[in-house]
Predict the structure.
Amino acid sequence: MSDRESASAPTLVSLWTGVRKRLEAAGVDTPVLDARLLLEAGAGVARLDIVTDPRRPATLEQIDAVDALAARRAAREPLAYILGRKAFWKLEFKVSPATLIPRPETELLVELALELLEPARNARVLDLGVGAGAILLSVLSERPLARGVGVDKSAAALEVARANAAALNLSERAEFRFGDWAEGIDARFDLVLSNPPYVSEPEMAVLGPELLREPRLALDGGADGLDAYRAIFRAIPRLLAAGGSFAVEVGRGQAGDVVRLAEAVGLAPAPPRPDLAGIPRVVFGRAHT
């Protein structure tokens, strides 16, 4: 870069500011954070570089790379898809447009699963609708004696899950199968987990632009949002080992209906566990003994 180009080039901080303003104009909810992460990814710099050397001139290559990423985010492509990764629980997971993006409220499902699984137990865990594998692999990472099976009817999502298992050195304890919920699963498990699609038809019609980029297969729960739960609870009684448990994430206002579905097939649900916003978020329980 010539002296003239260096003198006129945007700095890291001015590049960050420009991206932030662009994202604000596009209606992005978290423009400051997103702009920093896009700057880090596009320019190949760390947060420490931005903080300690904010007036470092950006190269033309860095400017072009950041501009390309910013254009995608301004078009409301989810940040996790642009970066190709998402932090969840204590780990980082690869994600793609074939997978649902793991969300903070789903960590409650992992937390509850760990309560239900004794650390010293050689438990078997089943995750129905495994997606990128975030739930199952987070549980296995905390329970070194446990083994798990994840099922999904998206072959592309299963490839992402397998890649995440390999990256976390969990491939030997995690098996992934293509299937429609529990069809073809004839084993019994100590814990059955699921974060199924639970968005109802009316809600699907008004989803925001980022959510519309996520796979419909992982969101659309049918007319009332409960189609997946009906299929899952029909199968759970035959999937649970003696003393086994189940836990499923639910949407706002769905806990009561899902509890009734569990009771209708002979399960014994406990009071639903609320998330930090006070919304009943996880329905869980055991088979009647």
Residues 1-7 have pLDDT under 50 and may be disordered. Strands lie at 85-88, 91-94, 124-128, 147-152, 174-178, 189-194, 240-249, 267-269, 273-274, 280-287.
